[in-house]
Specification:
The protein has ten helices and twelve strands. The protein has 331 residues and is α/β, with parallel strands linked by helices. It folds into two domains: 154 residues, Response regulator (Rossmann fold, 3-Layer(aba) Sandwich), CATH 3.40.50; 132 residues, Rossmann fold. The strands form two sheets. It has a six-stranded parallel sheet, sandwiched between helices. Strands 7-6-8-9-10-12 form a six-stranded mixed sheet, with helices on both faces. Helix 6 links the parallel strand 6 and strand 7. Helix 2 runs parallel beside helix 10 and helix 7 packs across helix 8.
């Protein structure tokens, strides 16, 4: 009886002190103010700024502490990892929401944080093949919350095929070969376009998230194959660089352009007829959902789905002025 009382008193002291009672499994009786979630974006661009808004909105709604790391000025582990590690080293982080800038190179640094008791949710991009339900060196994150990029790539292929009359040459401008999001988009696009025997994919270039490089690459592709009929650009920098190349070449309208990410600039280009299709992801919703699921796990151990996939919205010249679509523009 006396022993039981002492044990109970000890546990109560641990709770009052805020000590974690469950490694990698939430805390017992933790107050909302004690929960700290860190958001680590991939790069400074409108997509991640929009995601930050969703993260902060849900954090404020729940009354928890949200920390937003410095936005890397370039894409890649060499830029992202030092910022991540320096921010976590300040202490108090219970969970990291991160867009890994490489499917492989982020495994080790994130596993190190996980082994220290910090939970991981990947947003927008994932580790390995993204299947966290199977046992692997990269299956430790709770969830991937982001777009179905292969599906989007296939849908873009179908729409671009219609725009060019299901015949002609097409070109893809993308960013990095070792990033899950854009790799999935290119894969899906290739699968989709392969269904059209009269369409030829003439090239895929990687701009490494440098807009000017995307412009230069697209101009070179148009010079090499002047009869290119359609272009797919896979993210913010690819889209803004590729469409500018077409404008500079005086081929607006002659070359159909399907782009990914509904930035203010791309919507303006669509209204001017300089691009033909803009796919909008839902970065605000991704950030909002990541905090929501993270909070549930940290407070009561709620099981998080291994993948949470918001859908897409498509902007065309026919619907771009619809007020109902305004919320999907990255502002």
């Amino acid at each position: 009886m006396k022993k039981g009382f002492i044990l109970l008193a000890s546990l109560m002291l641990l709770v009052i002190a805020g000590a974690p009672l469950f490694a990698n499994g939430g805390t017992d009786a933790a107050t909302d103010e004690e929960i700290t979630i860190l958001f680590m974006p991939g790069i400074a661009d409108p997509f991640y700024y929009m995601m930050e808004k969703g993260v902060r909105a849900k954090g404020e709604e729940l009354g928890i502490n949200i920390v937003v790391a410095e936005f890397p000025k370039s894409w890649g582990p060499e830029a992202q990892v030092p910022i991540l590690e320096a921010t976590v080293a300040r202490g108090g982080v219970d969970m990291v929401l991160i867009a890994p800038t490489s499917v492989d190179a982020l495994i080790t640094p994130l596993k190190k944080l996980y082994d220290q008791g910090i939970e991981i949710i990947t947003v927008d991009t994932y580790l390995g093949d993204g299947d966290y339900s199977k046992s692997s060196e990269y299956s430790f994150p709770l969830s991937y919350i982001g777009s179905d990029n292969e599906k989007g790539g296939r849908e873009i292929a179908e729409e671009l095929a219609k725009l060019i009359g299901e015949q002609g040459k097409v070109y893809v401008n993308t960013t990095n070969p070792d990033v899950s999001s854009v790799a999935g988009r290119v894969k899906g696009f290739k699968e989709g376009i392969a269904k059209y025997p009269n369409i030829e994919l003439v090239g895929v270039d990687f701009n490494l998230d440098v807009q000017q490089k995307a412009t230069d690459q697209t101009l070179a592709a148009l010079q090499k194959d002047p009869d290119i009929a359609g272009i797919f650009a896979t993210n913010v920098f690819s889209s803004q660089g590729a469409y500018q190349a077409v404008v500079n070449a005086g081929l607006t309208g002659a070359v159909k352009i399907a782009t990914w990410d509904a930035t203010v600039d791309m919507i303006a280009a669509l209204k001017k007829g300089e691009v033909d299709l803009v796919l909008a992801q839902k970065p605000y919703e991704i950030g909002y959902l990541a905090v929501e699921w993270g909070y549930k796990f940290l407070t009561d151990g709620t099981e998080v789905p291994k993948a949470v996939i918001p859908g897409f919205e498509y902007f065309t010249q026919a619907n771009v002025d619809d007020p109902a679509k305004d919320e999907f523009i990255y502002k």
